[in-house]
Design brief:
360 residues; alpha+beta; Muramoyl-pentapeptide Carboxypeptidase, domain 2; 2 domains; 35% helix
Length: 360
Amino acid sequence: MQKRQVAKTIKKPLSRSAKYNKNNNKKRPHAHASNIQNKKAPKSSARHHRSSNVTEIPAIDIEQLLVNRISRNESELRIPRKALFIPEIMYASSTNLRELAFSNGLSAGRMMYESSDKTMNALLTILEQAGLGQVLYHLFENTGVITAKPNINEPNIKERIHTYEAGMISGFLGASAHHNMNVYETHCIYNGNEMCQFKITELPSQAPANRNMDSSQLLNSIIGGIRNKNHNGHVSEEYFLLYSLPLTVPPISEGMSKVMYLAAKSMSASPTWLSEDNMKLIEESFGLRSVKLVKEHKGKTPKSIIVEYAHLGSSSQFLSLSQSFLHGLVDGMKNVKATSYVELGSKNNYILYIQLNPVK
């Protein structure tokens, strides 16, 4: 019988000074606004110029900040889930990226345990912020099952995609138990199952095998994921940024940017792809604040794309994936080439301007 979401303190809380698996500690990514060169906007975009009283965004320990806000349920914005998120597709594409997702989720889970009230209810709240919907659990000492039912409609992509969440559960429960916990996803709604289910064991056990995608399958999955409109749930903005963080660190980020560019370039055969509806899908898939088209007066063809980022997502790390994708989208059109520049907006966040330049 499954227990409902009630605040139940986990036994044997781990002290804040406790450390283990030191060899897995990694350098925390930092956000640096100065990594991107801000260029002067053309006169036609004068109203978008950076305000003179806005300072550069300081370098911060972005991972710890995001973990703290997620653990304490302090998110101010929920991102609609009407399309698959790009990082979800990337993590499901290969064994190496799945291992990357699990290890980073493991680290985040341990940090979340220390930043939360150390109850099972705190873990359930975190998983709900991850977009897993109603979450139930059934635990016996060092074994158990966690089930979730995301609010989506038949998005069967034949993959179990919640590797990061499995690592996060493992880290959170392991911090409580004072030893490592093995967690893996046995059922996934994206793999044709009715719900997502995570199995928890004390000893390592064999997780279900996942396939590796070739380049063609990966590009098709990205395109299909963006066009998929079967989601109806929400994810906290902080969780999306934390979840995406491992893909933004070099040298992985360079490869991810190339994949984004190629996927987008294969999508855009004509200017008709640049529509408000499609920009909304891109906005949701990359977790952006807004993506807008700017057209000439009485013109049908857009002259530029304006992308607004959240304050916490305003760093060169988070910008590179969406910028590469939008560049590929424009460069894939006939007789058009993309150029771009970045400014610091009045909300202390990045604004990306992508110009569509005619090529003769």
